[in-house]
Amino acid sequence: MHRLVALLGPAGSQWVDELQRAWDVGDAVLPLDDRLPAPALDSLLAAMAPDELTEIRRDHTVIRTPLDRARPVEPDDALVMATSGTTGEPKGVVLTHDAVAASALATSTRLAVDPDRHRWLACLPLSHVGGLSVITRAVHTGTDVEVLDGFDAERVTDAARRGATHVSLVGTALRRIDPSLFECIVLGGSAPPPDRPANSVATYGMTETGSGVVYDGFPLDGVEVRAVDGELHLRGPMLLRAYRDGTSPLTADGWLATGDLGEVDDATGEVRVHGRAGDLIITGGENVWPTAVEAALATHPAVAEVAVVGRPDPEWGQRVVALVVAVDPVAPPSLEALRDHAKATLPAFCAPREVQLVGSLPRTPLGKVRRAALR
User: Fold this and answer.
1) Domain ranges, ordered by start, for the chain
2) Predicted confidence band of residue 84 (pLDDT cuts 50, 70, 90)
3) pTM score > 0.85 for this model?
4) What is the CATH class of 1-277?
5) Using CB atoms within 10 A of its CB, is residue 253 exposed (0-12), middle (13-18) or buried (19+)?
6) CA angle, 65 as apex, 61 and 68 as ends, to 5°?
7) Please, how many CA atoms are within 13 Å of residue 290, restricted to the half-sphere of its CB?
8) 58: number of CA atoms within 13 Å, CB side?
9) Sheet harboring 271-276: ordered strands across?
10) Cα 176 to Cα 196: distance, rounded to the nearest angstrom
């Protein structure tokens, strides 16, 4: 019987060794976030039903604890990734070895990774597919990889100076380093900053797709994208087998409805992602995409960070609200200034009707703004 092993502990070479150890004996791995409080961890373990908890301690000792009420996995299952949703019951995305290998090959081919010349740096949480995919790419292609136990600007800089050429980051981390130190930066987690460096690649994907499947607007080899009634659908060999509870979001012919709205250019095949269906703001009968407004407002010199949401409004149905982290809290940008700035590049109905100054924006561990918390 093939088992599911929950792996808990700081990221590093020992973590990778334990992943490989489980795979070598036919087990699948559930990566756990070691920052989770005990109640959240218990809830996740109950939902995912692993056979064993393997815990790597800070002193490098390994504790293996058998667990009750376990459920087996299928023979080819490699990973069960907990979804990154911030509310509701946790779901586990089951990725097979074939899917993991297909993702590693497709991404490495698109990035022209040379195992003899390049080295990956992993510094994002391994409990998220965007962080773990750096490890799986390196394992499947024989490329060197250095694993940090979290993002730290000084350590990332040091790793680059010692030979790391490729790294996966989110926008908030990108702003804290000198991007020219790397040959290639893979950006995920949220919409890329409007001034992203030329050596970066913006990716689109989700846990169900085993990491990014669209790079700089174009699908990876083997990936199909279509728009159905404005919703993006994906199909490819790196998609999940099922969820941990046995249900599958795939159609009979293998398509995944993403819940993201977008379009595919018929002539070029370029994919344009507008955002989650629930994020669309309808104000005065006009459709406003938060990401477009955020990109415009982010270029204002007084704005350090910004998120845009829709809130109920008796006159407009919804009003566009900008939550702004000011560069200088003593001299924040005014509503009028931000409206004028937005209207310089967007239709007037996209300009915010309210500005709320905040000290920080609530984000997931991979940098996505938690819009539900802002609404």
Assistant:
1) 1-277, 280-374
2) low
3) no
4) alpha beta
5) exposed
6) 165
7) 28
8) 1
9) 224-228, 231-235, 256-264, 271-276
10) 13
